[in-house]
Amino acid sequence: MESEPLLLAELKPGRPHQFDWKSSCETWSVAFSPDGSWFAWSQGHCIVKLIPWPLEEQFIPKGFEAKSRSSKNETKGRGSPKEKTLDCGQIVWGLAFSPWPSPPSRKLWARHHPQVPDVSCLVLATGLNDGQIKIWEVQTGLLLLNLSGHQDVVRDLSFTPSGSLILVSASRDKTLRIWDLNKHGKQIQVLSGHLQWVYCCSISPDCSMLCSAAGEKSVFLWSMRSYTLIRKLEGHQSSVVSCDFSPDSALLVTASYDTNVIMWDPYTGERLRSLHHTQVDPAMDDSDVHISSLRSVCFSPEGLYLATVADDRLLRIWALELKTPIAFAPMTNGLCCTFFPHGGVIATGTRDGHVQFWTAPRVLSSLKHLCRKALRSFLTTYQVLALPIPKKMKEFLTYRTF
Amino acid sequence: MDGEKKTYGGCEGPDAVYVKLILSDGHEFIVKKERALTSGTIKAMLSGPGQFAEKEADEVHFREIPSHVLSKVYALCMYFMYKVCYTNSSTEIPEFPVAPEIALELLMAANFLDC
């Protein structure tokens, strides 16, 4: 790995016009739209900022020669006219963009159903403190729908990648809910089973599986076809707070307050590896080991790297096949991270409402990995094991070897 | 197949040297040598000590690759171009698409060629 992640830019929220003691300033979520044209960030004080991507030139020095946090690289809330500010009225915990551009079948559908609010545009779902979910049109900043049902904080949201406008929400009320935005946001299913707060949800890119993780240390895998529980993944020793599928749906990673990220085969439930987040410089006593609690984990777009944010003030980059991180960057109070969909940049959000953009490893995938990704996008682990190919090739295809 | 319908950002040099890849049924592919060297196997075949007859001519015979892998060899050559083009540049690397119907056999070839 050539170098540590460099800080490209940092955005800070503008001074809120009315400081409300009940609202908080954390950036609980950051997100890029799937086509990479927008970035959203819940900057605290009930505000979500939508900014077009790439960022305006003035915020990123040429040739990525960014030094850390010089005043040239900050913006204080003013910016391009296309920026949108969404006032959600209460703390925003979860964010998700719908897939865009929508497939042609979707546009045809929208034309034949003019009475339904036009959600065949890029929308952003926001998960709020009292359980409501607000759906906003990105281009205009207009509120389209209000979804009610959850009884407590909506902590995470996920749209089906297929563009079918089915939305999944995860809540502290211990349920997940399925909403159909084609039907005025009708709630079509409640998924019960978790015993504590549900922290996160993620839908596999092939739309077949839903992963949810909760405070009781378990990770659940649900079928997105029947909305029933497929299996429970046990292994974490504390609350599981973040989960992500690989781009080919073949791997699932989960992150926990127990300082570990576990990589699973979602088809068989097997644990493939654990990534331990230990301190870079060990403390004099053992008392600080617990502060490596994980906050967020995400896959890079080509599926070969992971980024993690932990309470020990580090952003770590991991290569899948290695047991230790390949790079670190210091960041205080990190809460969330996500990769830019075309690679090259990682966005992180912090407790004080800031977001940072970091350089991500520049990856030229081997042809072997490109073929594996293409195959695993439609083959389950069991289908791979049934192929008439050598054992070593099966091990490679199922990510047992790299 | 005429080889290079699609190019990656104008990275061909003016004095290119070519090698010929000959498949088991006699089909031939002519590829720029620089790109063929992406494959560790081809590189070894072209420069290794005496075991492979190809050392003198710029020809590589693939006795193991049967003719139905033809279309995959084309994909291989495209990958060689992609890799050489983006390895030494600093531009954003686009995705290299692999059609699902050839992915399995292309994987076998990629495994054999170590690329």
Automatic annotation (TrEMBL), chain A:
InterPro entries: SOCS_box, SOCS_box-like_dom_sf, WD40/YVTN_repeat-like_dom_sf, WD40_PAC1, WD40_repeat_CS, WD40_repeat_dom_sf, WD40_rpt, WSB_SOCS-box_domain. Pfam families: SOCS_box, WD40. WD repeats lie at residues 124-146, 147-182, 191-232, 233-274, 287-321. Keywords: Repeat, Ubl conjugation pathway, WD repeat. Residues 366-402 form the SOCS box domain. One of its GO terms (biological process) is protein ubiquitination. Residues 66-85 are annotated as: Disordered. Pathway: Protein modification; protein ubiquitination. PANTHER family: WD REPEAT AND SOCS BOX-CONTAINING PROTEIN 2, WD40 REPEAT PROTEIN. May be a substrate-recognition component of a SCF-like ECS (Elongin-Cullin-SOCS-box protein) E3 ubiquitin ligase complex which mediates the ubiquitination and subsequent proteasomal degradation of target proteins. This is WD repeat and SOCS box-containing protein 2. It comes from Gorilla gorilla gorilla (Western lowland gorilla).
From TrEMBL, chain B:
CDD domains: BTB_POZ_EloC. InterPro entries: ELC1 (IPR039948), SKP1-like (IPR001232), SKP1/BTB/POZ_sf (IPR011333), Skp1_comp_POZ (IPR016073). Pathway: Protein modification; protein ubiquitination. Residues 19-79 form the SKP1 component POZ domain. GO terms for cellular component: cytoplasm; elongin complex; ubiquitin ligase complex. It comes from the Eukaryota. It holds the Pfam family Skp1_POZ. GO terms for biological process: ubiquitin-dependent protein catabolic process. One of its GO terms (molecular function) is protein-macromolecule adaptor activity. Keywords: Nucleus, Transcription, Transcription regulation, Ubl conjugation, Ubl conjugation pathway. It is found in: Nucleus. SIII, also known as elongin, is a general transcription elongation factor that increases the RNA polymerase II transcription elongation past template-encoded arresting sites. Subunit A is transcriptionally active and its transcription activity is strongly enhanced by binding to the dimeric complex of the SIII regulatory subunits B and C (elongin BC complex). Heterotrimer of an A (ELOA, ELOA2 or ELOA3P), ELOB and ELOC subunit. The elongin BC complex interacts with EPOP; leading to recruit the elongin BC complex to Polycomb group (PcG) target genes, thereby restricting excessive activity of the PRC2/EED-EZH2 complex. Belongs to the SKP1 family. This is Elongin-C. It comes from Gorilla gorilla gorilla (Western lowland gorilla). The gene is LOC101141508.
